[in-house]
TrEMBL record:
Residues 1-18 have a biased composition (Polar residues). It comes from Arthrobacter cryoconiti. Its cofactor is thiamine diphosphate. Keywords: Oxidoreductase, Pyruvate, Thiamine pyrophosphate. It comes from the Bacteria. It catalyses: N(6)-[(R)-lipoyl]-L-lysyl-[protein] + pyruvate + H(+) = N(6)-[(R)-S(8)-acetyldihydrolipoyl]-L-lysyl-[protein] + CO2. Coiled coil: none annotated. It is an enzyme of class 1 (oxidoreductase). NCBIfam families: aceE. Residues 494-715 form the Pyruvate dehydrogenase E1 component middle domain. Residues 1-23 are annotated as: Disordered. This is Pyruvate dehydrogenase E1 component. GO terms for molecular function: pyruvate dehydrogenase (acetyl-transferring) activity. Residues 733-866 form the Transketolase-like C-terminal domain.
Amino acid sequence: MAAGDTNSHILSGLTNQLPDRDPEETAEWLESLDALISERGTERAAFIMRSLLQRAGAQSVGVPMVTTTDYVNTIPADQEPDFPGDEEIERKYRAWLRWNAAVLVHRAQRPDIGVGGHISTYAGAATLYEVGFNHFFRGKDHAGGGDQVFFQGHASPGMYARAFLEGRLSEEDLDGFRQEKSKEGHALSSYPHPRLMPEFWEFPTVSMGIGPMNSIYQAQSNRYLHNRGIKDTSDQHVWAFLGDGEMDEPESRGLLQLAANDKLDNLTFVINCNLQRLDGPVRGNGKIVQELEAFFRGAGWNVIKVLWGREWDDLLARDTDHSLVKVMNDTVDGDYQTYKAESGGFVREHFFGQTPQTKELAAHLTDEQVWNLKRGGHDYHKVYAAYKAAVEFKGKPTVILAHTVKGYGLGTHFEARNSTHQMKKLTLQDLKDFRTHLRLPISDEVLEADPYRPPYYHPGMDSPEIKYLMERRRELGGFVPERRNKHTEITLPGDKTYEVANRGSGKQHAATTMAFVRLLKDLMRDKDFGKRIVPIIPDEARTFGIDAFFPTAKIYNPNGQNYLSVDRDLVLAYKESISGQIVHAGINEAGSVAAFTAAGTAYATHGEPLIPIYVFYSMFGFQRTGDSFWAAGDQMTRGFIIGATAGRTTLTGEGLQHADGHSPILAATNAAVISYDPAYGYEIGVIVRAGLERMYGKNSTDRNVMYYITVYNEPIIQPKAPESMDIEGIEKGIYLLKKAETGGPRTQLMASGVAVPWALEAQQILADEWGVAADVWSVTSWTELRRDGLAAEEEAFLHPENDARIPYITAKMVDAHGPVVAVTDFMKAVPDQIRQFLPNDFATLGADGFGFSDTRAAARRYFKIDSHSVVVRALEMLAKNGEIDTNTPRAAIDKYDLLNVNAGTTGNAGGDS
């Protein structure tokens, strides 16, 4: 077989391309290695082999990197540590856990409920979790601060079953699984959802790929807190439990290099390799374990394979010619799955029967003994050895690839079946067989009495097994999972910090991005508060003007800066530091959101509030990473999301995939996101201050929000804050910016963000050229106005006996007469959000469709959102109402050459920052 042939993904093919010119000499070398292993053990042999490989490389011997090893356990039997627990006791209550987890889902499927659930994932992973719970996962009362555990979403019934044995949940709670409103007060969420169970779950993981990504950045955030001197996290570990099918998500693998580069040895991935995804095998014709081993090792991780239980040790020790290892290597996953769905006799014939040597090797075993040859992920000793090796390994993150069987122990209808993920309940016979397999004291009569409601099993808190279980948790620092909300009190910045936002830009033109950056700089300078800000940027700091922070705040790098920087002589030199404040994620929006989530939940995870401020190209926020923001909302992340280079026509040169006209609509779908589109720096100051007060102010009651603020790269004169600034209006979403100064027919111009100057220009044109009086309103948040209006409607709907509350937008505009023209640099759906709450005639101008590259003036004329389009639309509405001559709109269209994109004048050129 040459490298690249059909089996190249199974083995590394170290010798496949080279001829063996002296087989006798080769045999002597191999015998020498076998003797070394026999006399000195595998640890010494590993050192010798590594030394030889190193010398071979130095001598330019072409030895390829060994990315894939044989399909056997990484840790040899002679290097396994003694198991420290009482395995018999742990096995007993593990059986109870597996029963209660399955019964929880089964009971939720009774005919009058039928809410679903997943049985097979936890059944196959119970050992992986229980070794962790009994010996490794530290709770928050541990002296080191406790671990963070990302549980596999579909395994949640197992965590509920354990909490039941621990006395944290009752039978009534278990019966509330997936009935969060109808069983309120005794309800359990389907998966790990912190927002739904804020004292139980810490990390949402069921959106595949986000758990791996977030766990990596959680481990990085732990180190960040430590290196910046905010908290000692040196004894905290991050565990992420994942599925082998989940590893096909790009997010699952796409950030592995960060963990390796940062040397995150405080991170362990445990991948439950049951060889199955939701519909069938992960790699029917291949070997997912081998594929993942190569991938992780190539990414710089420490890899530990846990493939075979202790029952295989004797067979492998007697496999002197490696016939058994070869069969293990050559057997593809589809066959391994089939073996566990058949019988011991089938395995004897089709697995061991592949060669005379392996057939003889298993000849002394009965069919039952063959069937009971466990996979490594179900063996306490093997799993414990892997976990211990992982937490003791230094310099690299570790991945444990654990071979398991999906639906393990649930019976032949479940084990390793393609359909097992969708199977929600057990037949009466399944229940009896499962009960017998687990050796539970539940009679046939009890099961037969009501097959839809088999009993949960709990022997009582005074039983030896439960006392043992509880003592293990006490020693390890308390229950896991557990979420706590108490944190260090922080002092928010005072008035002086916001002066830079209120004083405007004088004669200098400055985009709102720059206005925000100036405010951010002063926030970071605050003596008490500034250290808690975590600026997060992808590879665009210079676009946003944040490169000004490099020399002082510095870029976080746990390895420091060990090179001579090319721009070291510049004022704004790129500067990395172990204690750097800026998280610079590179060209990596997904990683940036993961970093944002880890920092924005530090108040709960670590009891130390951090204020993440993620600044990004607006197009690549909610469109690109919306699922991650949804998970951030679930995890109750707090922080600021800054969509820079906002608008469909403001970032003139970049074109279609950079022209954002819809992010506010996408953001509006996330209930945890408070969305703003400010026009001026002073508005930004009011919004940021309100956000900080809401997240960490003493009188706040709704803290778990993220503020999304769009900022632009078009330079304008930033005005001073008005003396009588309408702070409430800015916070709630609208205020009167400039009242008409002339008489005549009246109209109302609403605008947000970069469109406000166009509205002011249109106001002047309407007055000077058409004798129309237009009031200009700055709408800082169309979305918040809509949410307030919908809330008022809901209150009126549910309480018709009360006087209906008037929505804020309706009350604000009660004396504003005439038709409304609403304009933004976003699609029409953004301002249309408030249409139903106004009695006025309402017209929307927006940039619908794809963006393109052009000048700002031409693009705005094309979309008909420029100042002259506002003028014409206002005149049309007034003409329709009979307030001006019906020929006026046509005259205005001709006068401004409205259909000619080259006739547009709205906006200026340049202004990248």
